[in-house]
User: Fold this.
Amino acid sequence: MAIKTSVVQKITQIADPIILEEGLELVDIEYIKAGKSWILRVYIDKPDGVNLQDCQNLSRQLSDLIDVNEIIITPYTLEVSSPGLDRPLKNEEDFKRFAGKKARVQTFSPIEGQKKFAGVIESTTNNIVTLQTDSGAREIPLEKISKARLEVEI
Assistant:
């Protein structure tokens, strides 16, 4: 587990300057074992959405930096992509950016007897997300959120 955390931290450090320079946002990094090999997934976004060129460009630059800095020495596959329509919501800025959109939120411990919430993100202030659910407005402290994603709207 410590190796995975260390790799993610190092990748974040080398990726951040490139991502900022390219006008992108780093959404998430996953380093996971799949069978006998490893997969490094880097999720990026930008206000008008990422395209194939954005992903290819970052992939080339990151791959070179990972090799030069010898961050990953075992065989791995690098995947750079958009986070998708059901993108994860990781911080207060994410919740503010997607105010008015539907989301699913899961908490570490129950809030009023409930750990899973679905509704429209109403607002986010002082690290409290207000979610308008079928049963009314629910205030959820950011530090209690274990997982949150946008809900795909059809």
Remarks:
- The radius of gyration is 17 Å.
- Residues 40 and 78 are 5 Å apart (CA to CA).
- The longest strand covers residues 114-125.
- DSSP finds three helices and eight strands in the chain.
